[in-house]
């Protein structure tokens, strides 16, 4: 039920180390206290800084733990990996070389999470992220690295936060911050829970008119969490990367496409589809792109000139015919020969 990585606690910098003859042992993460979720993977690395000396060793490791060794640029390293870590309470891990030691305290916490999902018409949404282990007290809730304390849209009740009139902009990971008291002092622990929402592609312009040789850039704005996969199509055919530049847009991979020097065959009905594999649904918007000849304006003018010329010719012909008829009527009748 735990996460796959350790949750760092910002307590104090620097591990305990004893320098001897320019050689000393340090531990990464470089903190005195580290909290891990029950059942997660604990990974600690111990380094020996010095051109001489033996590899550092985790002295309290067991046969069920994996210890690997590395050496790079005179830095000796030993990594301790414990999968499905289930030690309850506090435990001190010690790394030692032949001349120095360092230690780190690991504290186990257990998380109980309950997220929520956005639906149209929701009046509220509730997220719960409770932890247990040692002496724990809630401190704050964070969203997009912003404290929600004092925000009237959010109401905090111990391990639960209530969102008033939620929308898709509120979707994402929320972090509950707790203070943990232990023999090593006071730690901060962060518990993350999700408020999810299906994908929604925002409205685009209905059409774009370009001239041959112009550059085309189309952007697809998507809301929802977790992020959906964006697929671009032209006339119901997937757009390939041949001649098309795909780039990130508003945090979404392939959210924007660009075609340099568009040609007539680049015209068509462009579609952006955001598909969520997690929820099995999608959202789609489309835009019609038209590509014109850059001298297309000449052809209507030519047509007008041709029409004017034809009209002038017709007028001239009519005038000539009228004059001929008039001349024929004005001539005196010829006498017939007897």
UniProtKB/TrEMBL annotation:
<dbReference type="InterPro" id="IPR052598">
    <property type="entry name" value="IgSF_CEA-related"/>
</dbReference>
<protein>
    <recommendedName>
        <fullName>Ig-like domain-containing protein</fullName>
    </recommendedName>
</protein>
<dbReference type="InterPro" id="IPR003598">
    <property type="entry name" value="Ig_sub2"/>
</dbReference>
<dbReference type="InterPro" id="IPR003599">
    <property type="entry name" value="Ig_sub"/>
</dbReference>
<dbReference type="InterPro" id="IPR013783">
    <property type="entry name" value="Ig-like_fold"/>
</dbReference>
<feature type="signal peptide">
    <location>
        <begin position="1"/>
        <end position="22"/>
    </location>
</feature>
<dbReference type="InterPro" id="IPR007110">
    <property type="entry name" value="Ig-like_dom"/>
</dbReference>
<feature type="domain" description="Ig-like">
    <location>
        <begin position="199"/>
        <end position="288"/>
    </location>
</feature>
<keyword id="KW-0325">Glycoprotein</keyword>
<dbReference type="InterPro" id="IPR013098">
    <property type="entry name" value="Ig_I-set"/>
</dbReference>
<dbReference type="InterPro" id="IPR036179">
    <property type="entry name" value="Ig-like_dom_sf"/>
</dbReference>
<feature type="domain" description="Ig-like">
    <location>
        <begin position="29"/>
        <end position="105"/>
    </location>
</feature>
<feature type="transmembrane region" description="Helical">
    <location>
        <begin position="297"/>
        <end position="318"/>
    </location>
</feature>
<keyword id="KW-0732">Signal</keyword>
<keyword id="KW-1015">Disulfide bond</keyword>
<keyword id="KW-1133">Transmembrane helix</keyword>
<keyword id="KW-0393">Immunoglobulin domain</keyword>
<dbReference type="Pfam" id="PF07679">
    <property type="entry name" value="I-set"/>
</dbReference>
<keyword id="KW-0812">Transmembrane</keyword>
<keyword id="KW-0472">Membrane</keyword>
């Amino acid at each position: 039920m735990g996460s796959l990585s350790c949750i760092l606690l910002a307590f104090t910098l620097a591990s305990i180390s004893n320098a001897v003859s320019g050689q000393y042992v340090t531990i990464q993460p470089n903190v005195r206290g580290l909290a891990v979720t029950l059942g997660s993977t604990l990974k600690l690395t111990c380094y020996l800084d010095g051109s001489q000396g033996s590899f550092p060793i985790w002295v309290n490791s067991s046969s069920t733990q994996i210890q690997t060794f590395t050496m790079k640029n005179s830095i000796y390293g030993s990594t301790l990996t414990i999968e499905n870590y289930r030690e309850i309470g506090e435990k001190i891990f010690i790394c030692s070389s032949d001349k120095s030691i360092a230690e780190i305290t690991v504290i186990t916490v257990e998380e109980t999470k309950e997220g929520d999902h956005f639906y149209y018409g929701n009046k509220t949404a509730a997220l719960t992220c409770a932890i247990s282990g040692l002496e724990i007290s809630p401190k704050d809730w964070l969203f997009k690295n912003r404290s929600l304390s004092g925000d009237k849209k959010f109401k905090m009740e111990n391990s639960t936060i209530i969102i008033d009139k939620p929308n898709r902009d509120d979707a994402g990971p929320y972090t509950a911050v707790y203070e943990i008291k232990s023999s090593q002092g006071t730690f901060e622990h962060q518990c993350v829970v999700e408020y999810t929402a299906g994908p929604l592609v925002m409205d685009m312009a209905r059409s774009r008119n370009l001239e041959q040789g112009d550059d085309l850039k189309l952007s697809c704005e998507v809301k929802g969490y977790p992020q959906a996969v964006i697929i671009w199509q032209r006339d119901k055919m997937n757009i390939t990367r041949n001649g098309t530049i795909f780039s990130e847009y508003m945090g979404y991979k392939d959210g924007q496409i660009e075609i340099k020097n568009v040609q007539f065959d680049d015209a068509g009905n462009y579609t952006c589809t955001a598909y969520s594999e997690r929820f099995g649904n999608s959202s789609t918007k489309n835009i019609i792109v038209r590509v014109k000849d850059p001298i297309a304006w000449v052809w209507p003018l030519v047509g007008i000139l041709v029409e004017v010329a034809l009209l002038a010719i017709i007028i001239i012909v009519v005038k000539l015919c009228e004059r001929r008829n008039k001349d024929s009527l004005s001539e005196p009748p010829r006498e017939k020969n007897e």
